[in-house]
Amino acid sequence: MTNETKTTKGAVFKPAKARGSATSWTVGRTVGQIVLVISALTIFVPVVWVFFASFKDKSEFYGSPWTLPKGLDWQNYVDAFRDAHLGQYFGTSVFVTALAMVLALIIALPCSYVMARFDFPGKKILKVAIQGGLFINVNYIVVPIFLMLVDADKLLYDIFPDGFFVNNPVMLAVVYAATSLPFTVFLLQDFFASIPKDFEEAALIDGASQFKIMTRIFFPMAMPAISMSMLFNFLSYWNDYIISMTLMTGDNRTIQVGLLNLMQTQKAATNYGRLYAGMVIVMVPVLIFYAIVQKKLLQTSTMGGLK
Question: InterPro entries, alphabetically (predicted)?
């Protein structure tokens, strides 16, 4: 007997086991897995190497670069935080990034909800403007932004003689949030538009207001999209160098600008341990933030459901 069956039209069907299940290793899947493993190793190996190198003493760098450190030299991290002022720059980056993410969500969430669920005059023009903002590279307009802020400081010179808009972490966070709004609104708008109207109609029958529907139903259901936008915005804010270097002209620098100064100083002094310690300090918040939001990225959009 065979496991093959015939239909009335003579077509032969094989069982799933004979055809090859989702767990079978085909040539294409094998090649894909090899490419993924190689790609992961190209990221994992340098990160681990930098981590171990951050604990090496200055004399250990004259030998083989692949040798493990003789001990855990925490002095590299102490020097990076204290002498290179990375601790101060780290605090500035945390403040700016957190404030920018809060501002972006406060503006983008209601804006994207209204654009996805309501019709109003000028909606199409606003959507085109938001989509057009996706194609604007912020690094190309950082100089006009800087000149605008300088002119604004000139107008307020009598009140703020030391300046208010330039070299201000709050204004840097505002610029970050404003430049990330097109992407955030575009992402959340598409997600809100994909949610069935049954959720909204059921809430209206129960007497819920539009504000309650937005905050109690749609926002929790949109947590995967919100987490994704937060992750992309966090990486954009935290890793920015050009905007912060242009707008923060004083000692209130972000950690990326401080890391570049540390690189230039330690290369001349050939103290690479302190340099790699600074790199680890920059990488750790990104890994922690991704570990926090990665579970939300995998959640489905049907949280709550219909009764």
Answer: MetI-like, MetI-like_sf
Give the Cα separation of 273 and 266 in Å (integer). 9
Q: pLDDT (tens digit, 9 = 90+) per residue, 136-164? A: 888 889 999 999 999 999 888 888 888 88
304 Cβ contact list (under 8 Å, min separation 6)? 199, 217, 220, 221
Tell me the torsion sign for CA atoms 126, 128, 133, 136. Answer: negative
Bridge partners of residue 13, in order along the sequence: 5
Average pLDDT score, the chain? 84
Residue 172 pLDDT: 94
- The answer to whether 176 and 102 have CB atoms below 8 angstroms apart is no
Q: How far is CA 281 from the centre of its chain?
A: 17
Of 1.10.260.40, 1.10.3720.10, 2.60.120.10, 3.40.640.10, which CATH number belongs to 75-297? 1.10.3720.10
The distance between the two most distant Cα atoms of the chain, rounded to a whole number of Å, is 96
